[in-house]
Amino acid sequence: MTIKDIARICGVGIGTVSRAINNDPRVSEKTQEKILRAVKEHHYVPNNSARNLKMAESNTIGLLFSGIDNPFFQGMISIFENACDELGYSFFLYAVRENDRVENVAMEVCKERRLKGLIILGGQLSFPNRRLDSLGVPYVLCTVTVPRDGDALPCSTVSIDDEKESFRAVSYLCEQGHRRIAILAGRTGESSYGVGTLRLAGYRRALEEHGIEFDPALVEYMSEDLPEYSMPNGYDTMKRLLARGADFTAVFAVSDTMAFGAVRALREAGRRVPEDCSIIGYDGQYYTEFMTPSLTTVVQPVSEMALKSVELLDDAIRRNAPPVCVTYDAELRIRESVMRLP
Amino acid sequence: MTIKDIARICGVGIGTVSRAINNDPRVSEKTQEKILRAVKEHHYVPNNSARNLKMAESNTIGLLFSGIDNPFFQGMISIFENACDELGYSFFLYAVRENDRVENVAMEVCKERRLKGLIILGGQLSFPNRRLDSLGVPYVLCTVTVPRDGDALPCSTVSIDDEKESFRAVSYLCEQGHRRIAILAGRTGESSYGVGTLRLAGYRRALEEHGIEFDPALVEYMSEDLPEYSMPNGYDTMKRLLARGADFTAVFAVSDTMAFGAVRALREAGRRVPEDCSIIGYDGQYYTEFMTPSLTTVVQPVSEMALKSVELLDDAIRRNAPPVCVTYDAELRIRESVMRLP
DNA sequence: TTGAAAGCGCTAACAA
DNA sequence: TTGTTAGCGCTTTCAA
């Protein structure tokens, strides 16, 4: 069933059918009605490939989303969607699969749907990036960690300062009287601009500023064999820390998922939270407030970040604005999982 | 940058470029190398729209996924993907947005990508369904609840029997000596084949078979104002049950998320779990084993269900097999959140 | 092994 | 207000 069939059925030209479908005012009401009725009756659906191929340009913003299985992104998609809506853009969501490279998908989708611009949510990218440079449309990186040093980025970014926020979280632990603070850290060998590395750096700086000597025995890196930043990994990593007989009164977990698993491990070891061990998470995921004890954590302002991403992209598209890097402050949400030491 | 440009650059015809790109053996090695080099150098990416438009058929299975924000589906996508891979299909993932109807998206995507078949994961559908009937390719419903009575379905389905599994879960509670069992139920007014209704029915039957009279005072329906089956809703619903002064020693929550929120509400009310109140969840989500106490829950065999869905679709595509409805058994995973009453 | 050309289904420019 | 037509970028004949 193509536009041709509908035209034949209605006894009109295909141009008229096209106009009727797209609500072009230059079709008589009677004709349009007839055509739409036939469309409905025969379940005609336009072929998007043909449409995209023909159209010189769309008015669509694409969202390239790496991490469909990552709960951190839960609920963000609809924020992007609504924001695009508000600014008058269509919205196209594309979930990047694990084995696909963001850059390649970006190129493909851009051509296929004639995107006006692109938001890249999550995933790993490196710069300079020749592929992305040749995209031809502006794009913004949201919660994508990239090296910040050296040359200016060719795109806008929206993120938080992981080092600073970790510093703040661990400082809070220090201020609550903790001196033996362990960290459930990212994988060893993570790149120097990965969040794990940044969060560990913040941890070290906080210790230093509070006159606490860094003790390698209190650092436990997450397992290479388990999914990164997952609950099982948090559980396993804490088990190892405990098994080593490390002596600590508080833990900084580099993600809420890690903290969740760690709490379980702590309890299995007979340590109460927060009475015997305080814990602090990172990300501010939705479930942390329903945990018992509710988890003190670094809340990333995901809504604002999503909104700002669309805004920046719109600036670039409509006003040709130059790239900017926006860094948001996270909020240390103080809840029940940290105890003040006497 | 189109195939034409590459052809011009390399001094060959566009047909040759097409063949080179698609690894057609009828291109001399030298020519292919030259072309691929130019492709790389100029960042040429074929336009999928043009490709899809031209190709008579693809070898692609599409996965229409409703519920990108639903943690229940976490990790399922890659199972579908691998299964398709194994059977020699390409895989196309499409996340259906809240405001889109599955049927419409199905029609569109099918035409656009010339799908061989479709798997519909989650979402709500009703039958008979004229739109889906005119799809023209086989499709299978995975964890989609549809009315089962009356005419045969035009497609295969893979699901579990919510009534039976709920019956089993609540029976277990009864067998542990509980007589006052509350339920955190689906929304009032849910359709008669919705999971909420089914799970409530299983609850009632279990009570009945164990000689316990059904007490409406022990049923608390989830809030209409909060997201369905969410943690806040579980929390809120339990709060209301508690506020009513209901008298119970165990609760059946119709989802793990509800159970999670409910545990928090219970504790805030000073009731220990499971000592003062047992609780049982439903779904078998990944985090339930890391909760404290770990949650006894009805584990849906999501991997098997995903695998079977692809298998059934393959049967329909390759062997023209008639639709079948496969119902899996769930597993009641007994953990720490239920206590035996003396 | 290659190039030329038809045509996938649609939109938009043009003509009527 | 309508019909006709060119052509979007590609794959795939067909002919060389």
Mean pLDDT of chain A: 94
How helical, in percent, are the residues of chain A?
25-40%
Low-confidence segments of chain A, given as residue ranges, are none
Instruction: Give the number of helices of chain A.
Output: 12
Rough outline of chain A = elongated
Q: How far is it from the N-terminal to the C-terminal residue of chain A, by CA?
A: 77 Å
Q: What is the name of the CATH class of the largest domain in chain A? A: Alpha Beta
- Count of discrete structural domains of chain A: 3
CATH architecture annotation name of the largest domain in chain A: 3-Layer(aba) Sandwich
Order of strands across the biggest sheet of chain A? 2-1-3-4-5-11
Largest interface: A-B, 44 and 45 residues
What would you note in describing this structure?
The structure is a homodimer of 342-residue chains. Helices cover 40% and strands 17% of the residues of chain A. Chain A folds into 3 domains: 42 residues, 434 Repressor (Amino-terminal Domain) (Orthogonal Bundle); 129 residues, Response regulator (Rossmann fold), CATH 3.40.50.2300; 138 residues, Rossmann fold, CATH 3.40.50. Chain A is elongated and about 85 Å long. In chain A, α1 packs across α2. With 342 residues, chain A is α/β, with parallel strands linked by helices. In chain A, the strands form 2 sheets. The first copy, chain A, has a 6-stranded parallel beta sheet, with helices on both faces. Chain A has a 6-stranded mixed beta sheet with strand order 7-6-8-9-10-12, with helices on both faces. The interface between A and B is large, with 44 and 45 residues. The structure holds a DNA duplex (16 and 16 nucleotides).
